[in-house]
Amino acid sequence: MINFKMEDYVFMGRWAQPVLPGVVWCRWNETESVKRAGYGQVFENQILLDGNFFYKTSDHKKIERLLDEVITSNMCQSYCALLDEIGREVEQNHLRVPEMETDLNGYLSALFNTYAEVTGFWNFTLLLGDVMNDYFLKHTFADSSEDMISKLSPYARRTWLEDQPREIQKMARALRQAQPGITANQVTNAQISEIPELSARIDQHVMRFSWFGTHHWLGDAYNRAKCINDIANVIGKKPTIEKRVSKDGDTVSTPLWELLAAVSYWRTHCAEITSKVVFASRPRLTQCATRLSLTYEQLLDLTPLEIRERISFDRFDANLPPNYEERRTAYGCYINGKGRECVITGVDLQKLVTVFIKVADADVRELSGVVASAGKTISGSVVVLISSKDFVKFKRGAILVAPETTPDFVPYMKLASAIVTDRGGITSHAAIVSRELGIPCVVGTKIATQVFKDCDRVEVDATNGVVRKIGSK
User: Fold this and answer.
1) First CA to last CA across the chain, in angstroms?
2) Which residues contact 380 (CB under 8 A, 6 or more apart)?
3) pTM here?
4) What is the 3-state secondary structure (H, E, C) of 65-131?
5) Which own/partner contact pairs does 111-114 have at CB distance under 8 Å and 24+ positions apart?
6) Domain residue ranges in the chain
């Protein structure tokens, strides 16, 4: 095993996921999308340890230099156009896959290759977004994170995950108009079916967002019952008025803010794209799993290469890797000197976890972060969500604590009284969605998922960006 040194790496974040997508993330730097976005610079592979991703310190410095060159050379507009061009290209290529009529091997090849290009670009915009956030504050383009949010808002682009709750709001308004005085507990499928136009709109909405609530190749489909429940939740709240933001009075270069808006958009939209395409590909992936005598979920603990080696044009091999069962508990991945994926488990994994992951001080009771969505101070009970397996324990009104949120978290973010994350800035997924939902949110606390445990009582100060433990379970 390679002798890794912690000082050579920067912690990127924790996204618990099966082996299949995790291995692809490690190879982010090998994609054409990253080579184009990085102006041909050579980046290094990432290391993945039990959901924790680490990238090379040298890559962080390369992106810092790239951003500095773009800004000082007045290239913001042209670079923004380049990122949009790359984003649209990887999006279109990935979205074409579910419509392909080809054999299973050809389908898997197209799915894995286009998925890699989207995730490569996704990784790049994640890193660039973090660097831009620091750059803006360092060079006083914004006085604070709150000021940055205010200045960025006029240029922000709406994502699919922002469209979804807005459509729910519109359907709730239509229901109120059709049934004045209706209450949340009166919103049922039978009631909706008596309004044909609204019923049809719900079916269209479900078709468009069938992937909503899925991510990292896991999660259950969005359906009519969930949609009606979303509408009922809106009916149970006070009607909101949509805020409009004007670009007037902006004193900073418009191209610079448009670039930040583009980076913010693509880092979230790439997650949406992959969720949609992978969900639409489940029938073909299930077919693949059946040929290997596996369930769909079991298939996900193989790497793309292992899957394609076992289902090829000329042979069928159902033998599983020696550490396959251990992978399902915890795994790590790195790319060795020969360019081969090394999926590690057990003792080998724990050796690297000990080197890279430090345990937080047990006495810590207060954390500071970035206010991503301002609001009143909220007190409540914590539910820590690391992966989709944890969603079942989340209850309405709880304070959602996570490493960082992804599209599959959104149905539970809607139920939260406040949101706290380990990583992220004002352009992160949690920041964008929480502002759309109007839920107080503090991001970038670094160790919230280590400090706070399920049922802890905490106070979230979404004005000053402070989260305090006020009681234990």
Assistant:
1) 41
2) 397, 398, 399, 417, 418, 457, 458, 460
3) 0.90
4) HHHHHHHHCCCHHHHHHHHHHHHHHHHHHHHHHHHCCCCHHHHHHHHHHHHHHHHHHHHHHHHHHHH
5) 111/277, 111/278, 111/281, 111/284, 112/24, 112/304, 112/308, 114/90, 114/277
6) 6-141+253-356, 160-235, 366-471
CA distance 463 to 270: 30
Please check whether residue 68 is in contact with residue 79, taking contact to mean a CB–CB distance below 8 angstroms. Answer: no
Task: Enumerate the β-bridge partners of residue 458.
Answer: 380, 469
For residue 194, count other CB atoms closer than 10 A to its CB.
Answer: 11
Torsion sign across C-alpha atoms 124, 125, 130, 135:
positive
Closest to 272 measured CA to CA, from 225, 220, 216: 216
Q: What is the DSSP string of 394-441?
A: --TTPEEEESS--GGGHHHHTT-SEEEESS--TTSHHHHHHHHHT--E
What is the residue type of 190? A
3-state DSSP call for residue 372?
strand
Per-residue exposure over 346-368, b if at least 16 CB sit within 10 Å of its own CB, e if not: eebbeebeeebeeeeeeeeeebe
Return d(Cα 245, Cα 254) in angstroms, integer.
Answer: 15
The pLDDT tens digits along the chain (473 residues) read 667 888 999 999 899 999 999 999 999 999 999 999 999 999 999 999 999 999 999 999 999 999 999 999 999 999 999 999 999 999 999 999 999 999 999 999 999 999 999 999 999 999 999 999 888 878 877 777 788 888 888 999 999 999 999 999 999 999 999 999 999 999 999 999 999 999 999 999 999 999 999 999 999 999 999 999 999 999 998 665 444 444 554 444 689 999 999 999 999 999 999 999 999 999 999 999 999 999 999 999 999 999 998 887 555 666 899 999 999 999 999 999 899 999 999 999 999 999 898 887 878 999 999 999 999 999 999 999 998 889 999 999 999 999 999 989 999 999 999 999 999 888 889 999 999 999 999 999 999 999 999 999 999 999 999 999 998 86
CATH topology of domain 366-471: Glucose Oxidase; domain 1 (3.50.30)
Strand-pairing partners, residue 400, are 383, 419
Whole-angstrom Cα distance, residue 135 to residue 116?
A: 28
Task: Calculate ∠ Cα 412-208-266, nearest 5°.
Answer: 70
Please give the Cα distance from 73 to 90 (Å, whole number). Answer: 27
